[in-house]
Amino acid sequence: MNTDWHVKPLSRKSTISGQTFKPGAHVVCYIYSNPNSPTELLRSDILTEESTHFNLPENLLARWTRIVKEHDDSEQKESQKQTLNNAEEFFLSLYDEFNINNQEHTKLILKQLLGLMLERKRILKRLKNKDKNIILYLHVPSKKEYQVPQTTLALDEIAKIEQQLTILIND
Questions:
Q1: Of the chain's two ends, which shows fewer C-beta atoms within 10 Å, N or C?
Q2: 9-18, 85-94, 119-128: range with highest mean pLDDT
């Protein structure tokens, strides 16, 4: 498989109203594949009070809510923390029951790459597991276990996907 995913970065304005997000605003983030181009991941960021006006796409991959932080370019550490929070919320949302659709292969790749990233940051802890086809993680903050089916990816695939994920989860 040679997938080159294209994703839209985090928006600073609501997809529905175009209103700029202010610090403290609650924003619902939706990630879904474009029905006309399956290699393109779309992102819609919407104020929570506008989310009732958003029609959930059938090909929804993930959904989470975040709070807009005060963004100061000199505070790189805060930006990195927000990126990590976005990655964590994205990973956890891949296990929500609302995400039942035909995007299983895409979700499998996302689970595996985000899981590895969060393991490196010690948000997920790898547990011993006898099944070689499953990576078993413990989500340290919640103490909840997650199973990630293991798949083999080519290095060029990982590089392309990782680059797109970075754009997707950065704040």
A1: N
A2: 119-128
Whether residue 3 is predicted with pLDDT greater than 50 in this model: the reply is no
pTM of this prediction?
0.56
Over residues 63-82, the pLDDT tens digits come to 888 888 776 555 556 666 66
C-alpha distances (whole Å) from 139 to each of 121, 132, 136, 145 are 11, 20, 10, 6
Length of the chain: 171
Instruction: Convert the pLDDT of each residue in 20-60 to its tens digit.
Output: 988 899 999 888 887 787 667 788 899 999 988 888 887 88
Residue 22 tokens read as 């202010």
Q: SS3 letters for the chain?
A: CCCCCEECCCCCECCCCCCECCCCCEEEEEEEEECCEEEEEEEEEEEHHHHHHCCCCCCEEEEEEEECCCCCCCCHHHHHHHHHHHHHHHHHHCCCHHHCCCCHHHHHHHHHHHHHHHHHCCCEEEECCCCCCEEEEEECCCCEEEEEECCCCCHHHHHHHHHHHHHHHCC
